[in-house]
Every structure is written in structure tokens, then in C-alpha cells.
Specification:
The protein is of the alpha+beta class. It has helices at 2-23, 40-49, 73-81, 150-174, and strands at 87-91, 96-99, 109-117, 127-136, 142-147.
Length: 175
């Protein structure tokens, strides 16, 4: 019985290998060097055009276009506007800037700002500014709330104005 099983396994793998190599065109035939593009993207396009290739996930490429932080006017303007505050997290790839709690003259009221970048373009819906206020009666009893007042709009407007100035000055320098 064991010999039949070993024979069956060998026959199965031999048949499987036969089908796999047969679907590749039978015998290996190397392509002439002059017909193979040197660039990888050209080879991929040629193979897909001839029906020889396949793509996973519908061929959609992941990721997006990113600029360096120093060339993005919106990012530079945000850091210029918030230069008086200590920054906890500034993640360009994550599109967020978070400041630490800031107060002047050790008062019992402090603010914290979170800025989310939704676009690289300078436009009002390209960033979201959230301002949080913390009121402390004593060291142990502090209450923090999100400020829905005019302060977040003022920071947003200041960042957009500064970003427009930076973009204009970069445009003048390049032209």
C-alpha cells in the first residue's frame, strides 16, 4: 500500500510539473536581447500589452505624490507661525503638527494647537486647525475643551496668508 502511495505522489508531482512547464510554452526559449527593453517599466508595459503579465489589486499603484517639507509652502508657513510654541509632533508624511500646552507668564490658562494637512495646495479646505484650551483652578483640577471660537480661524488665516507669501516669493526667485 505504501508503494502505491509513493508512486501516486511521484506521478502527481510529475504531472503537475508537466502542466506548469507546458503552460510556459513547453521548452524554454530565450528572447533576443535586442527585443527586450532595458527599462523595467518598459518591459512591464510590453509584457502586459502582449498579455504575458498580470497585476494584483487591479493594477492600482499605492501612495501619492509627496513634496519635501522644505518645498511645501503650507508646511513652512505653519512652522513659521507656530515658532513661538513648543512642538510635540511634526510629521510631514503623516500631515500633522501638534504643539505642547503653551501659556504666557505661567498663567492658569493654556492652549494646544493641532494642525492636520489635508492637501499640499494652499486653500482653506487644505488644512484643519484645532485649538484646545486648558483652564486650571489648581494644579490637580484642570479642564481642557476644544475651542470652537475665532482663535482656530485666526491661526488658519495666518497660515494661509504666510503660505501665499512664501509661494509668491518662491515664484519670483525661480522666474
Amino acid at each position: 500500500m505504501k508503494n502505491y502511495f509513493n508512486l501516486f505522489v511521484k506521478f502527481f508531482f510529475f504531472t503537475l510539473i508537466l502542466f506548469i512547464t507546458n503552460s510556459c510554452g513547453g521548452i524554454y526559449r530565450p528572447a533576443p536581447v535586442k527585443d527586450v527593453p532595458v527599462n523595467v517599466k518598459d518591459r512591464v508595459a510590453k509584457n502586459v500589452g502582449e498579455g504575458k503579465g498580470f497585476r494584483l489589486f487591479n493594477g492600482k499603484e499605492k501612495g501619492g505624490t509627496f513634496q519635501f517639507a522644505s518645498s511645501n509652502p503650507l508646511w513652512r508657513a505653519t512652522l513659521d507661525i507656530l515658532d513661538f510654541m513648543p512642538i510635540i509632533n511634526a510629521s510631514y508624511s503623516g500631515g500633522i503638527v501638534i504643539t505642547d500646552w503653551y501659556d504666557e507668564n505661567n498663567s492658569k490658562n493654556s492652549i494646544k494647537i493641532t494642525i492636520k494637512f489635508l492637501s499640499n495646495e494652499i486653500r482653506p479646505d487644505g488644512l484643519e486647525v484645532a485649538v484646545y484650551k486648558k483652564n486650571c483652578k489648581s494644579f490637580e483640577s484642570c479642564q481642557s475643551v476644544r475651542d470652537s471660537g475665532i482663535l482656530s480661524q485666526e491661526f488658519k488665516l495666518a497660515i494661509l496668508k504666510k503660505a501665499a507669501q512664501i509661494e509668491n516669493s518662491d515664484f519670483v526667485k525661480n522666474n
